């Protein structure tokens, strides 16, 4: 039986937009996620189908308070340290450093906040793994420039990235440019701040925006290496292989095409050029990418490692409508009849993790980092005030075994950060009741609760897993 290598990074992940709250404190500007309400109004906004550039009094916005990490980060990082974390993934809210996104100089209060967060990590020997953009584009960039459809975003983003690399040099060495970059295809407003006009070719807008993000990501990678050659920069995929629904060749082809749709981004970030298949795909979608002369050269700044989230595998077929069911995050997938599913219908497939990791390493030959994985579930507090989340332990245990098998397959895996290590707001639904954490947060879907933190049974289990470097599951 294989084991985890010495120095394997164990920890958990949060993101600014789903944890910090304090949406207007410290000079922070409004971001896309601040405009996305809970409830019926949520999906049209997330998908970029409805313009919401003003907050409304009659809506509840979960990101505005979230779990109040902004004021409670010392308590939260102490809980992570108690579990033995050696890595903590979070993101920087772009609009805390550049409230509008296009200012020439950053906001000092924003820098001071993250400095303090990363110092706190250092106190416990926890390596921060920091995403520059996790589903939160400053709203001013959306309203004034059309967000990533505009090439100027490359300059705004690289200025912001440079600020981060310089300000946190010596405190942070692991960086991710864009969280789940492929999600911009599936959830364009939350993914990339895109809002569509009636009748326009949405694929054209999305892929032009993707090109701008990919150039920005490559240039940010270059800057990170210039600022400090010890910096390691990763890309980040919303992962999970598509399975063909049957062995019918047309189904196999459909699955390959769906995989490519997502892997397109990582193909560019990890290999430094557009993949061969992209010309035909763009032609079929009526997409013509406008490039600047230096873009192809810029894209050659490839990432040091490939990070990804994995919640579930996916299924595709040629004949069935793949929009009819959601079984794997916001990427539409057919329901796999061989798998159990979470209460939200996400299939549970630990072997799919091993399959996904093998595919990714075969394709990229770069170290992998699993930066999101977990089970969204409803937790109950029992009469003794305890939360016995055995279902979560069982999910994580099976996925850790699959990671171990993938390591045995020869894959260099840098680390593992479970998603939502402290309960946070769900990105898809805006719910608090879809919980992932080892630590329960007293807050409900309507914003009631004290925000107090309580250790769940999984807290003690994960502490033991880390202490044994994954041997005691
Ligand atoms: C990923 C995101 O898509 O999945 C996270 O990077 C998100 O931001 C996570 O929270 C889980 O999805 P959800 O909708 O259950 O929060």
Automatic annotation (TrEMBL):
The active site is at 372 (nucleophile). Belongs to the glycosyl hydrolase 1 family. This is 6-phospho-beta-glucosidase. It holds the Pfam family Glyco_hydro_1. One of its GO terms (molecular function) is beta-glucosidase activity. GO terms for cellular component: cytosol. GO terms for biological process: carbohydrate catabolic process. The keyword Nucleotide-binding does not apply.
């Amino acid at each position: 039986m294989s084991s985890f290598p010495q120095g394997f990074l164990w920890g958990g992940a949060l993101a600014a937009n789903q944890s910090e709250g304090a949406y207007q404190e410290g000079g922070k500007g409004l971001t896309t996620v601040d405009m996305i309400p809970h409830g019926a109004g949520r999906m049209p906004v997330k998908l970029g189908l409805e313009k919401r550039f003003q907050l409304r009094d009659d809506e509840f916005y979960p990101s505005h308070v979230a779990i109040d990490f902004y004021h409670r980060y010392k308590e939260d990082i102490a809980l992570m340290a108690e579990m033995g974390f050696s890595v903590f993934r979070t993101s920087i809210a772009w609009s805390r450093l550049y409230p509008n996104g296009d200012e020439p100089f950053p906001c000092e209060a924003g820098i001071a906040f993250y400095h303090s967060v990363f110092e706190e990590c250092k106190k416990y020997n926890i390596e921060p793994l920091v995403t520059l953009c996790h589903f939160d584009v400053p709203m001013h960039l959306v309203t004034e420039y059309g967000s990533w459809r505009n090439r100027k975003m490359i300059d705004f983003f690289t200025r912001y990235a440079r600020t981060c690399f310089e300000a946190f040099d010596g405190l942070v060495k692991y960086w991710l440019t864009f969280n789940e970059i492929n999600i911009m295809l599936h959830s364009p407003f939350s993914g990339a701040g895109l809002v569509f006009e009636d009748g326009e070719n949405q694929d054209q807008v999305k892929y032009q925006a993707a090109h701008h993000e990919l150039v920005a990501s490559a240039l940010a990678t270059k800057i990170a290496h210039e600022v400090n050659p010890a910096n390691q920069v990763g890309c980040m995929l919303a992962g999970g292989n598509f399975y063909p629904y049957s062995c019918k060749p047309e189904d196999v082809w459909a699955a390959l095409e769906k995989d490519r749709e997502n892997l397109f981004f990582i193909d560019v970030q990890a290999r430094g050029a557009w993949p061969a298949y992209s010309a035909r795909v763009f032609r079929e979608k009526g997409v013509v990418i406008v490039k600047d002369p230096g873009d192809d050269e810029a894209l050659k700044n490839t990432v040091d490692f490939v990070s990804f989230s994995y919640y579930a595998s996916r299924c595709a077929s040629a004949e069935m409508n793949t929009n009819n069911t959601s079984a794997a995050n916001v990427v539409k997938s057919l329901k796999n009849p061989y798998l159990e599913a979470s209460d939200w219908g996400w299939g549970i497939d630990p072997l799919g993790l091993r399959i996904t990791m093998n595919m990714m390493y075969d394709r990229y030959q770069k170290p992998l980092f699993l930066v999101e994985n977990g089970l969204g579930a409803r937790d109950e507090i029992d009469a003794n005030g305890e939360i016995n989340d055995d279902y979560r332990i069982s999910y994580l245990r099976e996925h850790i075994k699959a990671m171990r098998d993938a390591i045995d397959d020869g894959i260099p895996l840098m680390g593992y950060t479970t998603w939502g290590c402290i309960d946070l707001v769900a990105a898809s639904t805006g719910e608090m009741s879809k919980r992932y954490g080892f630590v329960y947060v007293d807050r409900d879907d309507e914003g009631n609760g004290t925000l107090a933190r309580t250790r769940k049974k999984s807290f003690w289990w994960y502490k033991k897993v880390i202490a044994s470097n994954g041997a005691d599951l």
